[in-house]
Structures are given as structure tokens and as C-alpha cells.
């Protein structure tokens, strides 16, 4: 067995910001969806106890659940922060642009949506505020609106999710030229079986401007946990269909085989290896992974302390190419 890990939590600087974060971000998309408030509190408690301090949510989570309106995840996180009295030790990231009643990146919507998120979170500032998805709003409009939130002290740093290389470069150039708050991070769809969604032009812009990367779908909707296998029934869950589609990709079984090999060598679970590979990619600060229950959390947390060998990294690189 080859072991390369440390028990001491480490933290990384998020791009050019003053934010220091745990190298695994806890996804809040399941809060108010597949995890009720009690389960969510337990997961948040366990994450924080392990040294985790970077919680990711959005104003639209979880509007897709019948009876929900959006913002349920933010509300649960806000209730947890108040009940634990730990606001100052948690980096809270949320997003604007996809809420059913506050969609788009227009200036008025960004202002109103931020106020809604602040209210649901029960905080006086958002640590990291993402534009959730790019649209046809001029960069001058949304960059200026985000800068206003920073100047008012309602947001500490801004970032972008689901944005193309050209629009990212345009937004960064405008902010630089006008002396406005610039994006410090991006949140792309990126994992071992989805590399072309980030590598190439987007990754090059990120690297050139010193941004941090905080990938979502880090475990490919659960596929990279190893629960879904060729010829197997998989695991019944709200996300099973999304994960199982990777079995139809020729790379899917090859990646699972490589993950199995490395996991056996390291004496860890498959998910731990998948996250460790991603965390070691250029510019990546903290992959995002969610846990519905406390039992699902340990293999995710273990990735923060796992270092793969060059040979193990090469094996995974080749399988996922």
C-alpha cells in the first residue's frame, strides 16, 4: 500500500482574494432536497469538525422540489450558522442568476437577488458570490453591479460559474480597465470523465489571470464513487440516471478501472482518488462534493489529505483522455 496523506487540515488561498479555504468545498445542493434540515445540520457539523470551512450553495437550490420556491438550501445553511455561532469561521459561497423569481444577470436582479440571499442566510455579507450562468447581459452591466455589492460590503469576492472563455476574458478586461472588482474564481463542470468542459481555452484564461477553480460535478453525479458499474443495477437515488450515463462513454469503464487500481494502492475509496486527482489539477483550489448523510462524508474529506504519485496521476490521465 502506498500512503501519502497528512492528518493536519490545510487551507488554500482562493485566487487573488483574501479568502482561505479548505481544499474540499461542501456542496449544499442536497440541503432541502434529499437531505432535510436535521440531516443537513449533521453533515455540516461533521464537515466543520474535520476542518472544513467552504460551503457552496445557490439561491435556486432547491427550487426543483415540489413545494419549494428556491433558497431552501440557503435557509438551512443560515439556520445552521446561527445555531452554531460560527459565521466568522465559514466561507459561504452562493450564486445569482437562476432563481425562478430572480433570473438573469441584469443589474437590478443582481441587487435584489443578493438581498434575498443575505436574508435567507441571515448574514451581513456573502463571502463569494458567483454569477451562476452566463446570459446575454452586457459584461459592463453585471460586472458593475457586482462591484457595487463589494463596495457596499455585502460581498467579499466575486466569481463566475458556467461562463465561456471569451466572456470570462471580456469581463476580466472590463473590470481591470475600470478598476472594478474582478472575478477571483470560476466554477466549471469538471471531473475525470468530463475534462473537455474546462480544459483548453477556459482553463487557459483562468491560469493567465490567476483565478482559482472550484469544480462542480466533481464526482460526476456519483459515477466516480464507483457505485455504478457495467452490468450492475447501480444505486437507486435522485441522481442515479445522471451518473449511469457515463457507462455509455467508452472512457467511463476505463476510468473506473484506473480508479480501482489507485484506490487499492492507496488504501482509500474510489471517490477519494477521483477528488484527489481533481484537486491536484492546475488552478484547482477546492472541488465541490455533496453528502446526503454523514456516512457519505469521510471518503470526500479524505481527499483533502491524499497526494497521488506521479505514476498514479499518469494512469488516471491516460484513462480519462
From TrEMBL:
CDD domains: AKR_AKR9C1. Residues 24-319 form the NADP-dependent oxidoreductase domain. InterPro entries: AKR_Detox_Biosynth (IPR050523), NAD(P)_OxRdtase_dom_sf (IPR036812), NADP_OxRdtase_dom (IPR023210). Pfam families: Aldo_ket_red. This is Aldo/keto reductase.
Amino acid at each position: 500500500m502506498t500512503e501519502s496523506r497528512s492528518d493536519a487540515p490545510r487551507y488554500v488561498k482562493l485566487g487573488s482574494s483574501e479568502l482561505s479555504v479548505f481544499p474540499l468545498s461542501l456542496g449544499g445542493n442536497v440541503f432541502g432536497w434529499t437531505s432535510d434540515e436535521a440531516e443537513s445540520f449533521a453533515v455540516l457539523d461533521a464537515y466543520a469538525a474535520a476542518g472544513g470551512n467552504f460551503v457552496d450553495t445557490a439561491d435556486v437550490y432547491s427550487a426543483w422540489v415540489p413545494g419549494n420556491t428556491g433558497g431552501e438550501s440557503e435557509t438551512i445553511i443560515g439556520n445552521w450558522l446561527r445555531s452554531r455561532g460560527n459565521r466568522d469561521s465559514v466561507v459561504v459561497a452562493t450564486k445569482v442568476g437562476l432563481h425562478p423569481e430572480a433570473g438573469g444577470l441584469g443589474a437590478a436582479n443582481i441587487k435584489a437577488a443578493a438581498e434575498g440571499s443575505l436574508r435567507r442566510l441571515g448574514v451581513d455579507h456573502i463571502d463569494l458570490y458567483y454569477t451562476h450562468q452566463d446570459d446575454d447581459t452586457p459584461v459592463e452591466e453585471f460586472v458593475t453591479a457586482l462591484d457595487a455589492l463589494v463596495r457596499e460590503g455585502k460581498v467579499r469576492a466575486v466569481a463566475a460559474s458556467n461562463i465561456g472563455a471569451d466572456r470570462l476574458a471580456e469581463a476580466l478586461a472590463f473590470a481591470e480597465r475600470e478598476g472594478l472588482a474582478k472575478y477571483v474564481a470560476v466554477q466549471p463542470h469538471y471531473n475525470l470523465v468530463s475534462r473537455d468542459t474546462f480544459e483548453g481555452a477556459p482553463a487557459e484564461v483562468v491560469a493567465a489571470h490567476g483565478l482559482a477553480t472550484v469544480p462542480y460535478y466533481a464526482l460526476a453525479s456519483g459515477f466516480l464513487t464507483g457505485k455504478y458499474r457495467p452490468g450492475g443495477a447501480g444505486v437507486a437515488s435522485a441522481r442515479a440516471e445522471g451518473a449511469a450515463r457515463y457507462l455509455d462513454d467508452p472512457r467511463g469503464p476505463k476510468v473506473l478501472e484506473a480508479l480501482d487500481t489507485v484506490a487499492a494502492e492507496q488504501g482509500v475509496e474510489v471517490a477519494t482518488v477521483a477528488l484527489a486527482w481533481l484537486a491536484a489539477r492546475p488552478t484547482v483550489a477546492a472541488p465541490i462534493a455533496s453528502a446526503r448523510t454523514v456516512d457519505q462524508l469521510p471518503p470526500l474529506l479524505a481527499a483533502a489529505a491524499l497526494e497521488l504519485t506521479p505514476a498514479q496521476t499518469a494512469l488516471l490521465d491516460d484513462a480519462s483522455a
